[in-house]
C-alpha cells in the first residue's frame, strides 16, 4: 500500500533543493513558493526584521498562504474531476472546512498549495486482496487517486497493473460441474461498418471520388492496370483462403445476415398484408351483400306495408256492411303467406290478420247457433289455419306462454257463445249435437280452450245426468248418456265411468228375478273388469236366478211352465259359462233327473215318450249352453239312467237306483283333488296381466263345481273381504274364506288358518 508523503501540504522538490534555497526564501509558512536564487534579490535587514515579526505584533503580511500568483494560476489550470468526486465536492461545498479553504484561495479541481501543485483529490486507500503479501505476483497498490495525480504531473501510468485474484478451488469445481450443461445463448451484437470506417481503422486516407490508380488484386501478384476493362477475368482464380480481406468478409457476412433478416421481415409483412387484403375483400363482399339484403328487405317491407294497408282498408269497408263475408280477405292473406312468409313469422303479422277479422267474426258469432250449425266459421278458419297460426308449437322454453291473437279471439268471442248454448240449450239426454260440435272444433281448438269446454261445460252436465238417472223413470239408457263421450274423455274416463259403474251395480241390486234383463246391460260387460263383472253377477244376479229355479220352477210333463227357465237362459251371454253351468247343475238337473227317474220306474213306461221328452228338454237350451261341461254331464247322466232302465227291463221299478247328483259331484271333486296335487291352469278369456291369485282360486272352485261368491262382509281382524265357497247358488252352507298373501284362509276353531285349495274343496263339499 502506498505510504503517504509527510511533507507539507503542497510541498514539492527534493531535500537538496530545499537546503540550497533556504537562504533565498522568506518565511511564507505552509505552501510558500520556491524561487530560484538568482531571480530573487537579497533582502535587507529591515525587510527581514519586519517579515520575521509575528502577526500579533501588528505587522501585515503582504500575501496569504493560498493566494496564488498570476503566473502559478496560469501554469496549473483546474483538473477535470471524476463524476463521483464532483458529486462529493458539491455535497461538501457548504461545509465549514470548504468555506475556510475557499477563504484561503482554494478552489475545487485545483491542487493544494500556492502554486496548485498539491493533490487535487483526497487521498484514497486500497484494500489488498486476501492472502496476498506486499507486491505479491507484481500486485500494484496504486489507487485511482494516485494514478490521476501522477497523470496530472505528466507521469506515464499503465492501466494493466493489477493481477487477477486467485481462483478458489470451489469455483474451479463449480465450472467443471457446469461443463455438461448447455451453454447459454449470447446475443451477438451486429456492428455495421462503412467503407470509410474500415479505411480509417486501417490508418489510410479514403480515396477521392474520382477513380485514380487501379490495382488488379485478383491474381497472386497485384498489378496496376489502366482501366477496369483491362482486368482479365480468365486470369482470376478463386481462393479459399479465409485470411484474405477479413474486413470485407466480415461486412459481407453482416450485410447478408441483415438482408436475410430484412427479407424475412418483409416476407412476414407481405403475408400479413395478403391476409389483410383477403379479409378486406371478404369484408367488402359481406358489407355489399348486407347492403343489398337491407335494400331488398326495405323493398319487401314496403310491399308488405302495401298489402297490410289493403287489408285495413278492406276491413273498414266491411265494418259498415251488415252481412259481411270473411272470404274477401282470403286473397290478401294468401299473398302474405306465399310471398312474404319470412316476414309474416318474423314480424308476427297474424296480429294484423286477427285484428282485421275480429269485428266481422264478432257479429257473425252473435247470430250463430253452434248446436244447430256446428260447422259455422270452422271451414273459413280451417282455410286460414296457417295465417292464424293455429296450434303452432312454440319451442321457446317458457313457463307461461301468452295466448296468440287467434287464441285470444277464441277465448273472448267464440267460447262465451259456446258456453251460453251448452248451459241453456243442450241436454245430456241428447248428446249428439254437443258431440258433433266438439268433434268438429276439437282438432282446431288450442288445448286449453278444448279442455275448458270439456271440463267446465260438458262433463259437469254429464255427471249430473248420470247421477240422476233412474231406469224406471228415464226412457234414455245409461250408455246413451256416457258412451258417446268415451272416445274424447282420455284420462277423464275413470271419473265418468266410476259413476256409471255405480249406477249399473245399483241397477243389479234393485233387479228382481221376475224382471226382464236390463236393457243394453250386455254393453257394460266390456266396460267392467272381468273379475269385477263376475263378482257383481255372483253377488246380485246368481242368487236371485237360483231362487227362481228353486222356488218357482217345476218340471211337469203334462203342463210344463217354461217361463222361469227362459228368464234364466236370457242371462246366458252375461254370465261366465262355468258359473252358469254350475247354476243349472245345482238347481235344474236334480229336479229334472228326479222326474226322469220317477217316469222310468213306472210299470208301463213308454221309452219312446221318454226319448221325446229328453229331446225336448235338451233342445230347450241354446247350443252354447248344451256344450257347457256341467250341462252336458247332466244330460249324459239322464241318458245313462234311461239306458240303465232299458237294461233292467221289468226289474227297473225295483232295481233302478235314484240318481244322487250331489253325492256324485262330491265324489268326483274328491277324486280330482286327490289326482291333482297342484291347481290346474285354467284358460281364461281375460288378459294374462289380469290373472291374480283370486282368479286362480275361482277357477279351481269352478272346476270342482263350486261357486266362489262374495259374502258381503269382512273378516274382523284382518279386515279382508270374505267369500263363500258353496255348491248351491243360494249360498247356504259352504265355507267362508278370505284371501291374503296369496293364500286361502279358512276358519279353524276361533282362528283362521291358511289351507290348500284341495282342503278348501273338500271342506266346501261336506
**Uncertain residue segments:** 1-76, 676-690
Q: How many individual helices?
A: 32
Mean pLDDT: 76
Sketch the major β-sheet: 5 strands, antiparallel
Structural class: mainly alpha
Record field, number of beta strands: 7
How would you characterize the overall build of this protein?
There is one protein chain. The protein is mainly alpha-helical and 766 residues long. Among the domains are: 301-393 and 401-510, no CATH class; 576-673, no CATH class; 693-765, no CATH class. 50% of the residues lie in helices and 5% in strands. It starts with 14 loop residues before the first helix and ends with a helix. Residues 143-156, 170-181 have a biased composition (Basic and acidic residues). Residues 12-24 have a biased composition (Polar residues).
Give a short summary of the structure.
The chain has helices at residues 15-20, 45-52, 70-75, 83-91, 96-103, 144-152, 169-177, 195-202, 246-319, 330-339, 341-346, 350-366, 378-383, 385-388, 405-425, 432-442, 447-467, 478-482, 486-489, 493-510, 530-540, 542-551, 563-569, 577-587, 589-600, 607-619, 623-626, 629-648, 652-655, 661-675, 693-703, 757-764; strands spanning 214-216, 223-225, 707-714, 721-726, 735-739, 744-748, 751-755.
Amino acid at each position: 500500500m502506498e505510504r503517504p508523503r509527510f511533507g507539507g501540504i503542497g510541498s514539492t522538490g527534493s531535500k537538496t533543493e530545499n537546503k540550497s534555497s533556504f537562504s533565498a526564501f522568506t518565511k511564507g509558512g505552509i505552501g510558500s513558493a520556491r524561487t530560484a536564487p538568482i531571480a530573487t534579490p537579497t533582502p535587507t535587514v529591515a525587510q527581514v526584521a519586519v517579515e520575521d515579526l509575528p502577526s500579533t505584533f501588528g505587522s501585515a503580511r503582504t500575501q496569504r498562504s493560498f493566494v496564488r500568483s498570476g503566473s502559478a494560476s496560469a501554469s496549473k489550470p483546474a483538473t477535470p474531476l471524476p463524476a463521483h468526486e464532483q458529486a462529493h465536492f458539491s455535497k461538501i461545498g457548504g461545509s465549514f472546512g470548504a468555506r475556510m479553504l475557499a477563504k484561503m484561495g482554494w478552489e475545487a479541481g485545483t491542487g493544494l498549495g500556492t502554486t496548485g501543485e498539491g493533490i487535487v483529490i483526497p487521498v484514497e486507500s486500497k484494500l489488498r486482496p486476501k492472502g496476498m503479501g506486499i507486491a505479491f505476483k507484481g500486485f500494484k497498490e496504486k489507487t485511482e487517486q494516485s494514478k490521476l495525480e501522477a497523470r496530472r504531473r505528466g507521469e506515464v501510468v499503465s492501466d494493466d497493473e493489477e493481477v487477477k485474484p486467485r481462483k478458489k478451488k470451489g469455483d474451479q469445481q463449480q465450472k467443471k460441474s457446469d461443463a455438461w450443461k448447455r451453454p447459454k445463448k449470447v446475443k451477438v451484437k451486429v456492428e455495421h461498418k462503412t467503407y470509410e470506417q474500415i479505411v480509417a481503422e486501417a490508418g489510410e486516407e479514403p480515396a477521392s471520388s474520382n477513380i485514380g490508380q487501379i490495382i488488379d488484386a485478383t491474381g497472386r501478384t497485384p498489378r496496376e492496370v489502366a482501366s477496369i476493362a483491362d482486368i482479365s477475368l480468365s486470369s482470376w482464380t478463386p481462393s479459399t483462403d479465409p485470411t484474405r480481406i477479413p474486413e470485407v468478409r466480415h461486412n459481407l457476412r453482416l450485410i447478408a445476415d441483415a438482408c436475410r433478416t430484412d427479407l424475412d421481415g418483409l416476407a412476414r409483412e407481405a403475408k400479413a398484408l395478403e391476409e389483410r387484403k383477403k379479409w378486406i375483400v371478404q369484408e367488402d363482399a359481406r358489407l355489399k351483400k348486407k347492403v343489398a339484403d337491407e335494400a331488398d328487405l326495405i323493398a319487401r317491407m314496403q310491399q308488405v306495408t302495401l298489402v297490410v294497408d289493403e287489408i285495413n282498408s278492406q276491413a273498414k269497408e266491411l265494418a259498415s256492411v251488415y252481412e259481411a263475408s270473411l272470404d274477401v280477405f282470403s286473397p290478401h292473406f294468401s299473398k302474405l303467406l306465399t310471398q312474404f312468409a319470412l316476414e309474416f313469422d318474423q314480424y308476427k303479422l297474424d296480429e294484423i290478420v286477427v285484428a282485421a277479422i275480429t269485428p266481422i267474426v264478432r257479429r257473425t258469432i252473435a247470430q250463430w247457433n253452434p248446436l244447430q250449425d256446428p260447422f259455422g266459421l270452422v271451414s273459413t278458419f280451417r282455410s286460414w289455419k296457417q295465417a292464424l297460426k293455429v296450434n303452432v308449437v312454440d319451442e321457446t322454453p317458457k313457463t307461461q306462454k301468452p295466448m296468440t291473437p287467434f287464441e285470444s279471439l277464441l277465448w273472448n268471442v267464440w267460447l262465451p257463445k259456446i258456453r251460453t248454448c251448452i248451459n241453456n240449450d243442450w241436454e245430456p239426454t241428447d248428446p249428439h249435437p254437443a258431440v258433433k260440435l266438439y268433434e268438429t272444433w276439437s282438432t282446431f281448438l288450442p288445448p286449453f280452450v278444448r279442455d275448458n269446454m270439456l271440463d267446465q261445460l260438458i262433463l259437469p252436465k254429464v255427471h249430473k245426468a248420470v247421477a240422476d238417472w233412474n231406469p224406471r223413470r228415464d226412457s234414455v239408457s245409461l250408455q246413451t248418456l256416457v258412451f258417446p263421450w268415451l272416445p274424447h274423455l282420455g284420462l277423464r274416463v275413470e271419473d265418468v265411468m266410476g259413476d256409471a259403474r255405480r249406477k249399473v251395480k245399483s241397477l243389479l241390486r234393485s233387479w228382481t228375478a221376475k224382471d226382464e234383463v236390463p236393457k243394453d246391460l250386455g254393453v257394460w260387460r266390456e266396460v267392467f273388469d272381468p273379475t269385477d263383472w263376475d263378482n257383481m253377477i255372483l253377488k246380485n244376479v246368481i242368487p236371485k236366478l237360483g231362487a227362481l229355479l228353486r222356488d218357482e220352477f217345476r218340471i211337469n210333463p203334462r203342463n210344463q211352465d217354461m217361463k222361469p227357465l227362459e228368464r234364466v237362459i236370457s242371462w246366458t251371454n252375461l254370465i261366465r259359462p262355468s258359473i252358469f253351468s254350475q247354476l243349472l247343475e245345482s238347481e235344474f238337473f236334480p229336479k229334472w233327473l228326479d222326474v226322469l227317474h220317477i217316469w222310468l220306474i213306472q210299470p208301463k213306461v213308454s221309452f219312446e215318450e221318454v226319448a221325446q221328452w229328453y229331446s225336448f228338454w235338451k233342445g230347450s237350451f241354446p247350443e252354447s249352453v248344451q256344450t257347457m261341461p256341467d250341462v252336458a254331464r247332466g244330460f249324459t247322466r239322464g241318458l245313462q239312467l234311461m239306458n240303465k232302465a232299458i237294461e233292467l227291463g221289468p226289474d227297473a221299478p225295483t232295481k233302478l237306483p235314484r240318481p244322487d247328483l250331489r253325492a256324485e259331484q262330491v265324489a268326483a271333486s274328491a277324486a280330482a283333488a286327490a289326482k291333482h296335487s297342484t291347481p290346474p291352469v285354467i284358460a281364461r278369456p281375460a288378459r294374462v296381466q289380469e290373472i291374480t291369485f283370486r282368479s286362480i282360486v275361482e277357477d279351481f272352485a269352478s272346476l270342482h263345481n263350486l261357486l266362489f261368491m262374495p259374502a258381503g262382509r269382512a273378516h274382523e281382524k284382518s279386515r279382508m273381504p270374505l267369500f263363500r265357497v258353496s255348491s248351491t247358488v243360494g249360498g247356504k252352507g259352504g265355507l267362508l274364506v278370505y284371501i291374503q298373501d296369496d293364500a286361502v284362509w279358512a276358519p279353524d276353531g276361533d282362528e283362521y288358518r291358511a289351507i290348500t285349495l284341495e282342503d278348501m274343496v273338500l271342506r266346501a263339499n261336506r
